[in-house]
Amino acid sequence: MPPRYHDTITLDNHSELQHPNHMKATKAMTIRLLTEQAEALETVATVEQRPISDVIRSAIAEHIESRKSDPSFQKGLKERLQRTQRLLGR
Question: What's the sign of the alpha-carbon dihedral 2, 15, 77, 86?
Answer without folding.
Answer: positive
